[in-house]
């Protein structure tokens, strides 16, 4: 998965543009399809991945990724430094999609969340906080308190190492989906917030493909399905009933992939839409049911 040459050149000219999964508090807001849009409301941290460059603009509102745990390297040779390009690219593509298309679905003005970005969750003294608590290791977060997104370095390194670069794009698009939910009227936010965030994430990624700002490589869709499975309730590192099973996550992701942003809200009126057979270009029966990114032996496990 990669940003297009056109996007990369534009982003560079715009001088540095950039790119969780947590225990969610209530999501409320004032933005609505066809009504009024507003900024996010405050709440408690929302974790969406437990184990789990901004668009070109003249005035960038996010910063490029930095890492605390820069020495992370797995047996495959993947390092956090090598992942920064994918992280920045995912941020650029996802934020760019919402910047370009917010007015197609909502009223008001879109403002991106603050990107805290990479952190070292194994060190609670340096990890960023949400709701007065340090963010956990092997997790990613949207924090309504300060409207920010963040992801643990070990989570991204292990996921990318064992699954592929699509893992990075999925985690970031999903967390951005929670930021979008925080900007919406509660009537537009599904009770299954994690599944709807999958839908919104898919709408952004595939919308970017349609815009020509993102290109899929061979195998990327299979990586996405594997990633969704790794973040599902079937995995030992996710909270029961929090994220849905692997097939539910693929269904909701496919909903956003095929129907775009509106489908992620239309399903609240017609719940049967989310039970339609998956049409993503992989066989959902091949979705793995074993943990993909376990924490290292003796390390802190994911929660939520």
Describe this structure in words.
The two termini are 29 Å apart. The chain has one domain. Strand 6 and strand 7 (148-152) form a beta hairpin. It has 304 residues and is α+β, with helices and mostly antiparallel strands. The chain has a four-stranded mixed sheet with strand order 2-6-7-3. It contains seven helices and eight strands; from the N terminus they run βαβαβββββαααβαα. It comes from Nakamurella multipartita (strain ATCC 700099 / DSM 44233 / CIP 104796 / JCM 9543 / NBRC 105858 / Y-104). Residues 1-22 form the signal peptide. Residues 293-304 have a biased composition (Pro residues). Residues 32-70, 275-304 are annotated as: Disordered.
Order of helices and strands: EHEHEEEEEHHHEHH
**Mind summarizing the main beta sheet?**
4 strands, mixed
Number of strands: 8
Helix share bin? 25-40%
Percent in strands: 5-15%
How large, in whole angstroms, is the Cα Rg? Answer: 17 Å
How many helices in DSSP terms?
7
**Straight-line distance between termini:** 29 Å
Arrangement of strands in the largest sheet:
2-6-7-3
Tell the overall outline.
Answer: globular
Number of domains: 1
Q: Which assembly state applies to the chains in this document? A: single chain
Signal peptide: 1-22
Organism: Nakamurella multipartita (strain ATCC 700099 / DSM 44233 / CIP 104796 / JCM 9543 / NBRC 105858 / Y-104) (Microsphaera multipartita)
Keywords: Signal
Region (Disordered): 32-70, 275-304
């Amino acid at each position: 998965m990669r940003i297009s040459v056109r996007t990369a050149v534009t982003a560079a000219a715009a001088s540095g543009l950039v790119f969780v999964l947590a225990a969610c508090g209530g999501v409320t807001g004032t933005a609505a399809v066809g009504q009024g849009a507003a900024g996010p409301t405050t709440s408690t941290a929302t974790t969406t991945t437990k184990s789990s460059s901004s668009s070109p603009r003249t005035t960038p509102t996010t910063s490029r990724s930095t890492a605390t745990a820069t020495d992370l390297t797995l047996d495959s040779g993947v390092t956090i430094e090598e992942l920064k390009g994918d992280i920045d690219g995912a941020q650029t593509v996802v934020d760019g999609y919402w910047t370009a298309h917010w007015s197609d679905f909502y009223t008001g003005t879109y403002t991106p969340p603050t990107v805290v970005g990479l952190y070292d969750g194994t060190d609670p003294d340096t990890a960023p906080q949400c709701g007065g608590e340090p963010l956990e290791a092997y997790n990613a977060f949207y924090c309504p308190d300060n409207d920010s997104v963040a992801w643990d370095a070990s989570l991204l390194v292990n996921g990318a190492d064992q699954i592929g670069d699509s893992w990075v794009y999925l985690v970031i698009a999903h967390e951005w989906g929670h930021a979008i939910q925080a900007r919406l009227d509660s009537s537009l936010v599904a009770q299954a917030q994690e599944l709807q965030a999958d839908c919104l994430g898919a709408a952004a990624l595939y919308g970017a493909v349609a815009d020509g700002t993102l290109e899929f490589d061979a195998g990327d869709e299979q990586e996405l399905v594997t990633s969704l499975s790794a973040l599902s309730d079937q995995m030992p590192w996710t909270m029961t009933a929090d994220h849905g099973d692997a097939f539910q996550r693929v269904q909701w992701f496919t909903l956003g992939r095929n129907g775009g942003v509106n489908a992620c809200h239309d399903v609240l009126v017609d719940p049967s839409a989310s039970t339609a057979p998956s049409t993503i270009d992989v066989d959902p029966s091949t979705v793995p049911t074993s943990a993909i990114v376990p924490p290292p032996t003796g390390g802190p496990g994911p929660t939520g």
